[in-house]
Structures are given as structure tokens and as C-alpha cells.
Amino acid sequence: MADFSIETLTEGALFRIERPAKLNALTRAVVQGLSDCIADLESRRARLLVITAAGDRSFCAGTDLGELQGLTLEERMAKSDTARALLVRLHRSRLISVAAINGLAFGGGLELSMACTLRIAAAHVTVSLPEVKLALVPAYAGTQILPALIGRARALEMMLTGRAMSASEAHAIGLIHRIASDESPLIDQALAFGREVTRWSPTAVAAIRACVDASSDTLTDE
Question: Is residue 135 helix, strand or coil?
């Protein structure tokens, strides 16, 4: 079975990580597949990309450690660089990207959601950047994106302790925009959320995002 699937929408695409047995961890195939999906949508001037994952246990647990064990040091570095470049591109894209967080989002998985324009999560979700516990640094631009989302103090506390937080706490500090209700599937709510934005002028939406990013965006290409 493929590591991911892509469903075509009228205004874009639904990208789903299909690795529930591995907590939907990021492989090189997933990273490349999402990169190709974004490139295709941008070339067609599509408006909407929803990113989610199979099952309800995990949105994404970060990079696939099993895959890393089979890679050389150079290949590991290349995967990290490629994943970071992907998230920077996603963050900067004119696409309205919505992370439909269906389960835990740890490490690179949380960074993937942070690179999206909007985030909606199921009520049972927990999120964390636990890299410090492994003597690592969030490598997929999280150290730059997170402070812009929740402020420097909260971002430092989250990254330096590696503490996990609930969806309700993440929502309270602005890391998650909305918590999904039980009244309809998460995907339906994520699509509706994205369409609340894509219904408006793409020029106006892009200009608003550019102005906001200019005031807080510290992302670099490396």
C-alpha cells in the first residue's frame, strides 16, 4: 500500500498520510508526494489543500525512525533538508492549507501542521515537540514558525520541556484554530473551514497573509 493518497477536490486536493500502523510517520515517499502535490496544485492555480492522516490515533508522529536507521548520514541529512524545504514552501504557498489533525501530532508532525494556514483538531488530540528529550532540535522550521504562532515565551517553554499538551490547551494558546465538534466528520469540518477562506478574493487573501507574515516571519531558506 502506498504511503499516502490524494483525493481531487473541485478547488484543490485532500492529501492523506496512509501509515496508521507506523503512527503516520514521515517517510521520504510522503515528503516527496506532498511536495509533488503542492507543485501540481500551484501550477493549476488551485486554492485549497487539506492534509490529514489515516485512522484516529495519529496525525503524524514525526520522521520515521525506522527508515532513518537504514539511511547513511548523508541520506539522513538530505531527508531532513528536503522536509524542511517542503514545510517552508507550504508555509509560503498561496494555497490555503488546512491541517485536519486527527490524532497525536509530535515532532515533525506538529511542524507539518504548523506550516499550514489553518489547523483544526479532534478533541482527543495531543501535540508536542519532544526533540529535546532525544538531544535533538526541531529541524523542520518549527523553531521559527512556532514563536510566530504562539509567542516567544510559550514557544520556548514548549520546545525546552518537550511537554505534550491537549487540544484544548493548544487551542487556548492559539496553536490550533478550532477544535472539531462531534456533529460531523473532522474532514468535513476541515473542508468547510478552508472554504470559509477560499470563497473570498485570492488577491485580498494573499495580501492579508503577506502583511501578517511580514510582521512576524523569520523563516529562512536554510
Answer: coil
Domain with 104 in it: 4-216
Q: Catalytic: which of 7, 42, 131, 196?
A: 131
Burial 180-191 (b: 16+ CB within 10 A, else e): beeeeebbebbb
Instruction: Tell me what percent of the residues of the chain surpass a pLDDT of 70.
Output: 97
Tell me, yes or no, if 131 is annotated catalytic: yes
Contact 27, 3 (CB under 8 A): yes
Catalytic residue among 111, 169, 183, 222: 111
> What's 87's domain CATH number?
3.90.226.10
| Confidence at residue 163, expressed as pLDDT on a 0 to 100 scale | 97
Tally of domains within the chain: 1
For the question of residue 196 being annotated catalytic, the response is: no
Question: Which pLDDT does position 141 carry in this prediction?
Answer: 93
What are the tens digits of pLDDT across the range 113-164? 999 999 999 999 999 999 999 999 999 999 999 999 999 999 999 999 999 9
Asked whether residue 222 is assigned to any structural domain, the reply reads no
Q: Does residue 55 contact residue 20 with C-beta atoms inside 8 Å?
A: yes
